[in-house]
């Protein structure tokens, strides 16, 4: 009898186990499709936006004037450190706030949060603009080359219109992203990129404006992007429930937005600064124009890649916020697992691509053989940095740990069990180790090539 009962138990339990495995696999595939549906277009959006700056750098590089190329390189780093990184980090707070309100079907608050973001980021642009006016004095204070500093100042001054356009654009992108409205973002970003290429070429080469034309082209493209998205919001019935209305009622959410936007901006800047500060250090090396140009090209390449895991993480952040807002913490945990696997696969693919094309990568930015060969030497170190960026972008759901604070609080308000809280600890992996890693890798490179 005992043997018979054991056999019966085996017969009963075996199919249950197989069914459970099948359900897990099916759930994983479904979650992979859901995350990919948002992540793939977001990669197109973020990469297209960052390519506006990269294309301008390429145009200046093909002028064949090394001082202009190095000056624009250091200007881009200065602008990223003091301006764009701050705005991008602060706008990241909308991914959690708007994502949760949309998941909870509080559509009015979503428009209010976006209104607060637009006003706050616009105000932040004014002190940043003042800093950019004195770019040359700040750079020369840190012993940078006077010729490069002068070019950097001109570039930053003509980049100020782009700064205000970028502030509005980041708020609008989060507005669409958290609602799953993919097509407007993809259309506006890709269209702006395709228009940017001829606009930049005309301003830089045909009108002879050089690096000034490259800066103006970025501003034109950002504002075209903003106009297209704003027209869609105004006339599309899809945005009727979440319409952005500038009113005193919307400003009541301003303290709550700033509560998350300020730490989000700071945490975003800490990692970005770990990259960009190296370009300032390169300006202190022998032959600063060459060192700055090459290091800027490599860091712009890794930054361009960085927006791929950033977009993947941003899609995860939106998906997680929606599920937590709807009271589904276990589904949110599954989304994070999927994104981690995507991040690992992406790191392998991109690193392999860089290694295969290491000897021709530099020609995209310059025809100078010295620059091209120098970039080829850096590729192995870039692959290490790329791999670290991919994993961190996936693990943290965005670049930074802003979601740790908000998600922990959200999960406590939802009546979830204690095992669900493990998700938040897992999701909110710190980026401080990555910052130290990237600094040490690139410091090593600078040391090797200065010997």
TrEMBL record:
CC per GO annotation: membrane
Keyword Transmembrane helix: yes
Keywords assigned by UniProt, alphabetized: Membrane, Transmembrane, Transmembrane helix
Gene Ontology terms: biological process: xenobiotic detoxification by transmembrane export across the plasma membrane
Topology of the protein relative to the lipid bilayer: Multi-pass membrane protein
Predominant cellular place of this UniProt entry's protein: membrane
Domain of life from the UniProt record: Eukaryota
Transmembrane listed as a keyword: yes
Coiled-coil annotated spans: none
UniProt-recorded Gene Ontology molecular function terms: antiporter activity; xenobiotic transmembrane transporter activity
Pfam families assigned: MatE
Subcellular location: Membrane
NCBIfam families (UniProt xref): matE
Family (UniProt): Belongs to the multi antimicrobial extrusion (MATE) (TC 2.A.66.1) family.
Record-linked PANTHER family: MULTIDRUG RESISTANCE PROTEIN (PTHR11206)
Protein name: Protein DETOXIFICATION
Organism: Medicago truncatula
Source lineage: Eukaryota, Viridiplantae, Streptophyta, Embryophyta, Tracheophyta
């Amino acid at each position: 009898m005992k043997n018979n009962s054991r056999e019966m138990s085996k017969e009963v339990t075996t199919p249950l186990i197989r069914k459970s495995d099948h359900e897990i696999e099916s759930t994983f595939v479904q979650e992979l499709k859901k995350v990919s549906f948002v992540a793939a277009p977001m990669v197109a959006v973020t990469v297209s936006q960052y390519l506006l700056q990269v294309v301008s750098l390429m145009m200046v590089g093909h002028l064949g004037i090394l001082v202009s190329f190095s000056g624009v390189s250091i200007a881009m780093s200065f602008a990223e450190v003091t301006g764009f990184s701050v705005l991008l980090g602060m706008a990241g707070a909308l991914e959690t706030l708007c994502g949760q309100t949309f998941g909870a079907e509080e559509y009015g608050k979503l428009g209010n949060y976006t209104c607060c973001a637009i006003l706050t980021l616009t105000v932040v642009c004014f002190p940043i603009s003042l800093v950019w006016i004195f770019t040359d004095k700040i750079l020369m204070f840190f012993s940078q080359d006077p010729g490069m500093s002068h070019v950097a100042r001109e570039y930053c001054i003509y980049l100020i219109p782009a700064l205000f356009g970028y502030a509005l654009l980041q708020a609008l992108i989060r507005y669409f992203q958290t609602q799953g409205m993919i097509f407007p973002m993809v259309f506006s970003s890709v269209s702006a990129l395709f228009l940017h290429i001829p606009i930049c070429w005309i301003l830089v080469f045909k009108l002879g404006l050089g690096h000034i034309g490259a800066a103006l082209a970025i501003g034109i493209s950002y504002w075209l992007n903003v106009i297209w998205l704003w027209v869609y919001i105004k006339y599309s019935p899809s945005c009727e429930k979440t319409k952005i209305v500038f009113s005193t009622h919307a400003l009541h959410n301003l303290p709550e937005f700033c509560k998350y936007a300020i730490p989000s901006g700071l945490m975003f800047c800490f990692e970005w600064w770990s990259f960009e500060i190296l370009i300032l250090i390169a300006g202190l090396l022998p032959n600063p124009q060459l060192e700055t140009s090459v290091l800027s090209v490599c860091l712009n390449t890794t930054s361009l890649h960085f927006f791929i895991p950033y977009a993947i993480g941003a899609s995860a952040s939106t998906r997680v916020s929606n599920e937590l807002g709807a009271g589904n913490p276990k589904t949110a945990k599954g989304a994070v697992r999927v994104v981690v696997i995507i991040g690992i696969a992406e790191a392998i693919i991109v690193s392999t691509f860089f290694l295969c094309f290491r000897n021709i990568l530099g020609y995209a930015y310059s025809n100078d053989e010295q620059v091209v060969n120098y970039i080829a030497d850096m590729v192995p170190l870039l692959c290490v940095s790329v791999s670290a960026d991919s994993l961190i972008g996936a693990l943290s759901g965005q670049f930074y740990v802003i979601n740790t604070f908000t998600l922990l609080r959200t999960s406590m308000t939802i009546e979830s069990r204690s095992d669900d809280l493990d998700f938040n600890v897992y999701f909110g992996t710190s980026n401080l180790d990555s910052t130290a890693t990237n600094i040490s890798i690139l410091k090593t490179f600078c040391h090797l090539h200065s010997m």
